[in-house]
Amino acid sequence: MKIITSPLTAGYTALAIVNAGGIPVFADIDPQTFTLHPNALEKAITPRTRAVMPVHLYGRMCDMPAICEIASQYNLMVIEDASQAHGAILGGKRAGSFGDAAAFSFYPTKNLGGLGDGGAVVSNNPELIDSVKILRQGGHAAAMQSDKAGLNSRLDEIQAAILRVKLRRLDEWNERRRQFATLYNQLLSDASLKTFSVPDNLDSHVFHLYVVRHEKREILRRFLLSRGIETLIHYPFLLHRQTLFRRTEQPSLPVA
Fold this sequence. Notes:
256 residues, alpha/beta, six-stranded mixed sheet, 12 strands, 16% strand, globular
């Protein structure tokens, strides 16, 4: 069972595939958005491919209409990694509502974050959700009776209560992020920085991170740090170059 995803994401995306008994296959990214390129996705499909896991990156949604069309053509499931795109809207649909299922992270740094680790799986498929509920509870379909090899992955009540309150302000906070990102773009327009293209439909980008590129990245980082400005690299190591995921033959990824 092979599942296609992006090489530019946190390792948890591909680890989920491995833990489910699958083989992650990495397809190349769009040079403008750094999200999974639909053309590269289609080229990576083989008779063993069962699903695609697009990753909404830095707050920007993938080209989900194109990805879903390809998935439908090849009878593949679509599992969205929406961990960085809480509340993003594309074509009137929210991130997490395009595929068969989607995963969200509630890590404190996310647009919708709790006070610790947490996450959620969403789907319109009741049977799938029933299975997830069993798996998150150690595989228990009934009290202390394990039917499947599950995990201890429950979201505790305190975290859920906090997230429920914060959810009401998510759209407001996302709009503020867009305003700040627009301001940054204006102020940095004359700097020797490469900023990512901004979509015509700003609703599809919630700017989880504001990301720039620079030929002398480390010099720039040291300069900013000397001014008290912390920066991070997202991501320092592409997944297809990491030891765990180099075990299988991968397509060429020139952009990544």
